[in-house]
Predict the structure.
Amino acid sequence: MKVEVAVVGNGVAATACATRLARHGIRPLLIGPGLPVDRPPLTKAALVDGKPRLLADEERLAERGIDRLHALVVDAELDEGRLRAEWGAEAWEVEADRIVLAPGLLYARPPIPGFEDALVNADPHVFERLAALICAGPVEVLVVGAGLIGTETAATLAQAGHRVTLVDLLERPLHRLHDPLPALARATLDDLGVRFLGGVRIEKGGERAVETARHGTLAADVVLVATGGVPLLPPGLAPGEVELPLAVGPNMQVPGHPRAYACGDLVLVPHARFGPLRFPHWDAAIGTGEQAADAVAGVAAPYERVPYWWSDIGPRRLAEVGVAAQAAAWAEEGGLHVGRDEQGEPVCVLVVDEPRRLREARALVQEGGGA
Ligand SMILES: Cc1cc2nc3c(=O)[nH]c(=O)nc-3n(C[C@H](O)[C@H](O)[C@H](O)COP(=O)(O)OP(=O)(O)OC[C@H]3O[C@@H](n4cnc5c(N)ncnc54)[C@H](O)[C@@H]3O)c2cc1C
């Protein structure tokens, strides 16, 4: 089949890219398994009612002018604009003028014996298995990994009436985030009745129990793994020897491959203010997806969207605007936690439970960049 633009992937970035391409009057082909599923609800509302949220159904895609192929891309010749997609015994050869790569992250199971078939709460297909286990009534759940996904998952499940234990190798939930977020997450988990165990090394995994050095056997009805993801580029899709995340140009082009673009969790973006930036969060997936579509349509502009993520830990809404890693000093300013760089310019603002102040936080960070 011949198309103008093929978008590899059907997650947040791919759908944003395809939607924007259609607005530019370009009819894209979205290639991925099933309908596009949104990710954030998998640790929030969908975990309560067992229903994943679609980014668009068949009808919406058609209305927007987006074609869809239910398949996985297994091979690509980026410079020739050729893709091979497969699903079961079926296979398709796709010829495209331009290709946009948006396959997201690989949420791999940790290399611990017994975790070969573990439930990973990040993938919509695995989610179906999980939903069947937790939606029939309260169960005991052990969540492994207290990053954003694991901590949210534990809090949501506890709020929904399940008995939850959350374990991590590190001593605090959200340990890698800036203060006060780890302490705040810990207090919220305590309030919700989640048992948090830090400093836990798992020696053997399992579907209903794990073996640990510090606490012996921890048993549950369901063991869930939330140990994070790594950028994914199946070998057949990689443009030669590449390092991941894939460093793209300002317009999301894959360097050295003029027909190819990339976006979403896969990429390292040259941000106009913050420099090379890896930002695997929802808003950046939309921003880079739209930027790739604009570039395909011939609209060139620097990538300057202010980085932003949010997380719902039970009743609490945490948000970060800007880049925490670039802050040299932090101070509380009018109820916001503001991080400033060596020059004293605001580079990051943490907003806790005050979504209405996000605009203010964004303006502060933008002002720091001289915008
Ligand atoms: C459970 C969960 C909760 C999250 N919650 C938040 C949140 O609260 N706030 C926030 O800011 N961010 C959140 N995020 C992060 C955010 O959702 C991601 O940054 C965003 O989804 C990345 O978009 P993406 O399109 O790059 O990848 P994804 O949305 O993961 O989509 C990638 C898609 O590509 C498909 N694919 C992979 N390989 C191939 C192939 N070879 N051929 C065809 N298709 C392929 C996959 O099946 C998948 O559908 C969350 C992520 C997860 C997983």
User: Anything to note?
Assistant: The pocket of flavin-adenine dinucleotide is lined by residues 8-14, 31-33, 39-40, 42-43, 72-73, 102-105, 122, 149, 232, 234, 264-266, 280-283, 285, 309-311 (CB under 6 Å). The first strand starts at residue 2 and ends at 8. The chain has eight helices and 26 strands.
